[in-house]
Amino acid sequence: MEESPTLASDNRTLKLNGAKLAELRRVRGLSREQLADAAEGAHRLSVATIKRAEHGAPVYLETARRLAGLLNVSVQLLIEQGTADSNAADSSALELLSVDDGRPVGVAVLPFRVIGEDIETRLLAHGIVEDLTTRLGNWWFPVICRASTFDYNGGFDHREAAEQLRVGYFVEGSVQRRGNAVRVHARLVAARSLQQVWAAEYNRAHATLFALQDELTCGIIDGVNHKLLALEARRIEAFEPSDLEAWQLAVRGTQLFYERRQASNAAARELLHTAVNRDANLTWAYFLLALTYQQEIVNQWSLNPRETLGALAAVASEFERHHRGDARADVVMAYLLVYQGKRSEATDRLRRAIESAPNLHIAYSLLGQTLAMANDPDPAIEHFELAMRLSPRDADLWSVQTAMGLAHFVAERYDAALSWAEKAAQLRPDIAFTFGTVASASALAGDLPRARAALEEMVRLHPAVSMRGFEVMLASTQPDIAARYISGLRSAGFAA
Fold first, then answer.
1. Which of the four, 290, 391, 430, 482, has the lowest number of CB atoms within 10 Å?
2. What angle do CA 143, 325, 30 make, to 5 degrees?
3. Which of 377, 448, 463 is CA-nearest to residue 417?
């Protein structure tokens, strides 16, 4: 019996039309080596992987999507068999983007409508769509290749397009320019009901085209990502966990992770562990699984931070074993190296992560922290500013603000350190560590009443906070800086 050309749904693999893949590669004048070299970034491809795909071996869905993007075709085209069964094959393969109730949960970024005729506005609209597609695709939602959405430019039926593209959501919008002013509308639409579930308007001066494109895209991506996550997590709450596929488990785990509470962090870890055990190709689930341990260390939710550090090391090693070269795997390993006191190695990892994924804001933030730990506060602040620009309304903005405060603390600019730490505390008044920074900086600035009040709040929020926990967090910090921070806490009355 001939093997199915498509899927093994237990591990999200599918079999491509190897002859068509090889033909498309040759038409573009590319050797396998050249195609592999073109696959830069988080999901690199080896020559061996391309060779196996061309010989009909099953590949992961992410690999298929990567090949399709490099060849500027749709995944559907790569799996077509040239027979009457091709439509069935397409449908089966794209079921990998669906969940148990049959409703697709992928997203398609449609061409933005251009109001006006000038070429720069058209270029801006195209740039926003390209950037949105790339950035959404680099995070966690399955995103249809740009080559598959290019022709949906007005005059089409949205429900028919949803069936053709097998998606659950559309991102669409418009761009208009009048003189030096640009207005961009963006909205997220449920593909079947056509209900608008999120919308935003952006009004900016035209300024430099590329800078404007980047600013608008950052704002849109932030809103769309968070709304999609909330919608999908809510939609699958009715399922029993034992019935969920790996992707669904990871979505629920992600939602719990971003609640940033000790109990939800533990629940998220359990779901994410199960997800990656069932599907090791879920890179974003691996990333957040590792961050559950990192959050446990930062927030001192563990009575044994060394044990938590060991667990983080195990996840980091597994992540890298499955996805060597992934920028987020480098970030996870950098966190581990920071807590192990290996600051220089962590810095190298983060620079590599930024090189391969220049929009990964968490890499900029952590690199800023390593530079501050090395008593280089001003370059650190530049990296924090980049992180906040790339994700201005991030759920973890408080952590970047706290780190900004610590960079000023390193420079002994205690007023600025307090200003940033208190911003973080206002944004997340439930996080103990921010109040520790306020306490230490206030004490060293000579304001002991303020320092003691912040220390009391830190202990109230987390009674188990200990000096041992701070020692793990400060392991990569230059000894004189760490000693100064601890001295500030002691002056405020901390003796745990």
1. 430
2. 70
3. 377
Distance CA 94, CA 86 (A): 12
- Above 50 in pLDDT, residue 66? yes
CA distance 400 to 279: 31
8-state DSSP, 181: E
Winning range, highest mean pLDDT, from 66-70, 86-90, 187-191: 187-191
The first and second tokens of residue 305, run together, are 């931070």
Phi and psi torsions of 438, nearest 5°: -60, -45
CATH of the domain at 197: 3.40.50.10610
Q: Which of 235, 251, 282 is the last residue of a domain?
A: 235
The answer to whether the predicted template modeling score (pTM) of the entire model surpasses 0.70 is no
Residues 151 and 23 in one domain: no
Q: What is the per-residue DSSP string for 152-176?
A: -SSS--HHHHHHHHT-SEEEEEEEE
373 and 400 assigned to the same domain: yes
Domain of residue 444, residue span: 363-496
| Rounded distance between C-alpha atoms, residue 1 and residue 17, angstroms | 18
Summarised one tens digit per residue, pLDDT across range 105-141 is 678 889 999 988 788 788 788 888 877 877 776 655 5
If one counts the domains in the chain, the total is: 3
* Minimum mean pLDDT range among 11-15, 126-130, 267-271, 481-485: 11-15
* pLDDT at residue 492, rounded to an integer: 94
In this structure, how many other beta carbons lie within 10 angstroms of the beta carbon of residue 199? 13
- 132 & 64 share domain: no
- 373 and 473 in a common domain: yes
Using the 3D structure, point to which of 205, 235, 265 is the last residue of a domain: 235
Q: Measured in Å, how far apart are the chain's first and last C-alpha atoms?
A: 69
DSSP 107: E
CB-side neighbour CA atoms (13 Å) of 214? 11
Inside any domain, residue 285: no
Distance CA 454, CA 469 (A): 18
